[in-house]
Amino acid sequence: MSRIVSDPQILGGKPCIRGTRISVEMILEWIASGASRADILRSYPHLAADDVDEALRYAVQSVNHEVADAEIAAERVRRGGQAHFAPKTAQNEPVPEGSGAERGTGTFCSEDCAK
Fold it and tell me: What are the tens digits of pLDDT across the range 15-33?
């Protein structure tokens, strides 16, 4: 997904469309409020249809990974282990502590993983 980037210096690390301050979250909010892809592109002519499509694919992929990670963590806990949430950037790199991006994208992992 080359159109979606995450930088702790831009919107606190929220995944955004490359070269903009338009977050994946914002695209989802517009669609949830009834906007179509055409509405978004009309309002933001510097965006391409592929930008909107990739933002939606990113959101679906993120939700799928979080659900799977949560299920794995729950199974570890059921077996007597421990798990925690490790924030990651859109490029799946650890989020710097104190960057303000600790919420959101990440993964559940066992206690022995690198935080």
Answer: 999 999 999 999 999 999 9
Would you report the helix, strand and coil content of the chain in percent, each value rounded to 5?
A: 45, 15, 45
Q: 57: domain CATH number?
A: 1.10.10.10
Determine the structural domain holding residue 50 and report its residue range. Answer: 4-110
CB 17 within 8 A of CB 47: yes
Distances, alpha carbon 85 to alpha carbons 27, 44, 95, in Å: 25, 35, 12
Domain count for the chain, please give it. 1
- Residue 64 resides in a domain: yes
Domain-located, residue 79 = yes
Position 72: which residue type?
A: I
Q: How far apart are the first and last CA of the chain?
A: 24
The tens digit of pLDDT for each residue in 77-111 reads 666 665 555 555 545 555 455 544 444 445 545 44
Q: Are 25 and 14 in contact (CB under 8 A)?
A: yes
